[in-house]
Design brief:
This protein is of the alpha+beta class. The chain folds into two domains: 108 residues, Beta Barrel (OB fold (Dihydrolipoamide Acetyltransferase, E2P)), CATH 2.40.50; 37 residues. The protein contains two helices and seven strands, in the order βββββββαα. Strands 3-4-5-7-6 form a five-stranded mixed barrel. The chain has a two-stranded antiparallel ribbon with strand order 1-2. A hairpin with a 2-residue loop joins strand 1 and strand 2. The relative contact order is 0.13. The model has no long low-confidence stretch (mean pLDDT 81).
Length: 172
């Protein structure tokens, strides 16, 4: 890699100080970038050298004369020298297709988004809970039936005690 020409700057963005051996790195490899760029938040960094970046935009709907918030989520190559993680705000540029779904590369890490973890936890809590299985529903129904029977038996025994005391009061 030492004999190859390394990019010092891409569209005004300086190369990171850390050097990598990634062929798909726009600074230290042979990857060319196009002019199309976006800025978004890394929402998933679980894949090897790939992150999912998401950003939102407002779209005008003429029929309703209102705006609609839409989100775009794409997979982006994450070079070793930049190494972003979840919650980071990144600048990405278009490239040639790197794989079936990856057509962009991370060029700059702009910092981390405030309250990203809180938002993610809130989304997890908002997800729909799983429905209870049929067996557990049947068990709870059986338990509730038994409780109802016990309550009815107690109520009947109390009524019989009260009626016995009423009969004694009337005879006296």
């Amino acid at each position: 890699m030492s004999n190859k020409k390394q990019a010092k700057e891409i569209f005004g963005i300086k190369a990171p100080a850390e050097e990598c051996g990634d062929k798909k790195c726009p600074f230290h490899g042979t990857l060319n970038v196009k002019k199309k760029s976006f800025t978004g938040v890394v929402v998933s960094a679980k894949m090897h050298n790939t992150v999912a970046v998401e950003w939102s935009r407002r779209v005008y709907i003429p029929k309703y004369e209102r705006y609609l918030n839409k989100r775009t989520k794409i997979l982006v190559h994450n070079p070793e020298c930049i190494d972003t993680k979840e919650g980071d705000i990144v600048k990405i540029f278009r490239t040639r297709p790197l794989s079936k779904l990856v057509n962009f590369v991370v060029v700059e890490n702009l910092g981390s988004e405030k309250n990203f973890l809180l938002k993610k936890e809130a989304q997890e809590e908002a997800k729909v809970q799983q429905k209870p299985s049929k067996e557990s529903v049947e068990e709870t129904e059986d338990e509730s039936k038994e409780e109802v029977k016990e309550e009815v038996a107690e109520a009947e025994s109390e009524e019989s005690v009260e009626s016995d005391s009423d009969d004694k009061n009337e005879s006296a």
